[in-house]
Amino acid sequence: MNEPVFLKRTIAKHTLHSRHLGEDRKLRIYLPPGYNELLSYPVVYCQDGEEFFNFGRIATLAGQLILEEDVEPFIIVGVEVNVKTRTAEYAPFGDRFDAYLACFAEEILPYIEENYPVRRTPDERIIAGDSLGGSVSLHIALRYPHLFTRILSLSGAFYPETQAWIEDETDLSRLNLNMVVGLQETEYQTDTGLYDFVEMNRLTRDLLLERGATVDYREKDGKHLWGFWQNELRESLLYFLNA
After folding, report:
1. Could you read off the pLDDT of 194-239 as tens digits, one per residue?
2. The model scores a pTM over 0.85
């Protein structure tokens, strides 16, 4: 029995040396069906790249959207992270946070654009993440407004430090966010404390809206797990890719 065509995919793996982080960083790049380097493609950049591919099954989902739902072919870039240094890189109070933001915007993005035919305008890029990955994606868009304006957040860990960053902004009308959070995430234990992710996401949504951002926001039954996010990823991607 032949496997569905959307399960056949091309995933390239690269290792980039980051001067900012002082170490190598692994990347996974999904190339869509019919990939042609003479064309140009929208691009989705994912924090926690290994998890987006393994647990989010984003490559299979991309194939389905492209082949069955007539979504324009797109490239996915998964940026892998070491679990031991994840909070240090993704949280705004982490001691590797500034270096990671610089690595992402000043090293990873130019490397991808040099090697793949991705489109180079903010409205053709999506930056995505779960939990702290959603938070750091927003921070990258805030620090590098000329690079990113479209943010996909799955149960974003928008700690008070992130909300303070937003409060310091006056005009965020350039931003377009798709946010989802699970209703069973009201008491989630992280490595820095116990948080109510529902309240955290509601407050962040309101702060963004007050500053003119476009926010597509939804709350669904779900826990702070990939089992929930995998089911929501399709709707979140379609929000941007069908626009």
Report:
1. 999 999 999 999 999 999 999 999 999 999 999 999 999 999 999 9
2. yes
* Domain tally, the chain: 1
pLDDT in tens, 45-68: 999 999 999 999 999 999 999 999
DSSP string, the chain: -PPPGGG--EEEEEEEEETTTTEEEEEEEEE-TT--TTS-B-EEEESSHHHHHHTS-HHHHHHHHHHHS-PPP-EEEEE---GGGHHHHHSTT-TTHHHHHHHIIIIIHHHHHHHS-B--SGGGEEEEEETHHHHHHHHHHHH-TTT--EEEEES----HHHHHHHHT-S--TT-EEEEEEETT-SSEEETTEEE-HHHHHHHHHHHHHHTT-EEEEEEES--SSHHHHHHHHHHHHHHHHT-
132-143 helix and 160-167 helix, angle to the nearest 10 degrees: 20
Please, are residues 204 and 165 in contact by the beta-carbon 8 Å criterion? no
Which residues in 107-134 are b (16+ Cβ under 10 Å) and which e? bbbebbeeebebeeebeebbbbbbbbbb
What range defines the domain where residue 177 resides?
Answer: 5-241
Two structure tokens written together for 226: 């990939």
Q: What is the CATH number of the domain that holds 211?
A: 3.40.50.1820
